[in-house]
């Protein structure tokens, strides 16, 4: 089958990215892999949808570095395919990276993903579900029991009052954003640099204030779910602890956090079970839950990363089961046609 990976830009891809690991697993299983960027879709006057793609040459790539080098070369001369020549579109872009400099690109995956799904292409995660999840507000649609007390506002007075009511302090961060950018721990409303923090964090719009969870000092746990269930192989869960750098509240790897092995607890599995029904309903095929203590801080539904790191950590290939699951979806699509909706097929 032919799998198209939709990314922010081919230039910004790296050998260590999860998308690279997935592409390598797909190629090694005999599939054709192409990469798509936000400006590559074409909707023609006859309503035909086409896409310009970088085609990975057929080869027995042994390492992510070899595949990445081939991708860079392939991007120099793209080819155009009818969308019907693509079996699966895997949306793997981070919209927040394009909001400022390329706002037209931020929603391209969701918009054209919908058009592709309407034409019978399997699109994961489901674009309608992703449309609901384009900010951290998505977390508020999950059960209150699994998420920390949260205020979302641009009103400094409201945020100060919220901080004042929580003796453990709060985390303040932008509603839109990723990678740990502009995330601050505020211990009390009288912090001398509070105004500067508000100014820095609110530049992107609304702010989230969340009750600080003391267990966050030890970092958070990224747990992967596939088809609504914890991703596991060879007795290992696809999960790791992200430990913040000394003196930093952020545990994001991009923000100098480090990754360590973690024992997945019944509490973590209970959180996964609690969010499973909505994730399935929303067509969320592959997601990353970020857990601290008994609370869920974020659900990464666009570009959950870490599978490459996990492979080395546990000596376990977690990318191949993801490709196998996509193969099964294609078998179901061929058997049932469009009688099964894309959102439902995405998590079967």
From TrEMBL:
Can you give the residue ranges of the ATP-grasp domain? 136-327
- UniProt pathway: Sulfur metabolism; glutathione biosynthesis; glutathione from L-cysteine and L-glutamate: step 2/2
Group of enzyme by EC: ligase
Q: Which residues cross the membrane?
A: none
Key word NADP present in the record? no
Query: Any idea which UniProt keywords this protein has?
Result: ATP-binding, Glutathione biosynthesis, Ligase, Magnesium, Manganese, Metal-binding, Nucleotide-binding
Chemical reaction(s) catalysed = gamma-L-glutamyl-L-cysteine + glycine + ATP = glutathione + ADP + phosphate + H(+)
Which GO cellular component terms, listed alphabetically, does the Swiss-Prot or TrEMBL entry include?
cytoplasm
Q: Which domain of life, per UniProt?
A: Bacteria
Swiss-Prot/TrEMBL cofactor(s): Mg(2+); Mn(2+)
- Write down the EC number: 6.3.2.3
Keyword Methyltransferase (UniProt): no
For molecular function, the Gene Ontology terms on record are:
ATP binding; glutathione synthase activity; metal ion binding
InterPro entries attached here?
ATP-grasp, ATP_grasp_subdomain_1, Glut_synth_pro, GSHS_ATP-bd, GSHS_N, PreATP-grasp_dom_sf
> Which family does this protein fall into?
Belongs to the prokaryotic GSH synthase family.
**What is the name of the protein in this document?**
Glutathione synthetase
* Gene behind the chain: gshB
């Amino acid at each position: 089958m032919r799998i198209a990976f939709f990314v922010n830009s081919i230039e910004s891809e790296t050998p260590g990215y999860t998308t690279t690991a997935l592409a390598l697993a797909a190629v090694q299983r005999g599939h054709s892999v192409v990469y798509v960027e936000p400006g590559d879709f074409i909707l023609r006057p006859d309503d035909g949808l086409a896409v310009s793609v970088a085609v990975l040459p057929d080869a027995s790539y042994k390492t992510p570095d070899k595949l990445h080098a081939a991708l860079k070369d392939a991007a120099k001369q793209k080819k155009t395919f009818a969308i019907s020549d693509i079996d699966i579109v895997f949306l793997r872009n981070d919209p927040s990276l394009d909001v400022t400099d390329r706002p037209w690109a931020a929603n391209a995956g969701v918009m054209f993903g919908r058009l592709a799904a309407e034409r019978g292409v399997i699109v994961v995660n489901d674009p309608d579900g992703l449309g609901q999840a384009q900010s951290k507000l998505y977390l508020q649609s999950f059960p209150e029991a699994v998420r920390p007390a949260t205020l979302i506002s641009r009103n400094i007075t409201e945020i100060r009052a919220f901080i004042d009511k929580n003796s453990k302090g709060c985390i303040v961060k932008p509603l839109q954003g990723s990678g740990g950018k502009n995330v601050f721990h505020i211990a009390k409303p009288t912090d001398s640099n509070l105004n500067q923090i508000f100014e820095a964090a609110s530049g992107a719009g609304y702010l989230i204030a969340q009750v600080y969870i003391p267990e966050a000092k030890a970092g958070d746990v990224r747990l992967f779910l596939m088809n609504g269930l914890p991703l596991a192989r060879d007795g290992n869960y696809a999960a790791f602890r992200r430990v913040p750098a000394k003196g930093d509240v952020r545990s994001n790897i991009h923000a100098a956090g480090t990754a360590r092995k973690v024992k997945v607890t019944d509490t973590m599995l209970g959180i996964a079970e609690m969010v499973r029904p909505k994730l399935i309903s929303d067509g969320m095929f592959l997601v990353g839950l970020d857990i601290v203590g008994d609370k869920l801080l974020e659900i990464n539904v666009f570009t959950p990363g870490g599978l490459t790191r996990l492979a080395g950590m546990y000596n376990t290939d977690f990318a191949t089961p993801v490709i196998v699951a996509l193969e099964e979806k294609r078998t179901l699509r061929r058997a049932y046609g469009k009688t099964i909706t894309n959102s439902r097929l995405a998590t079967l």
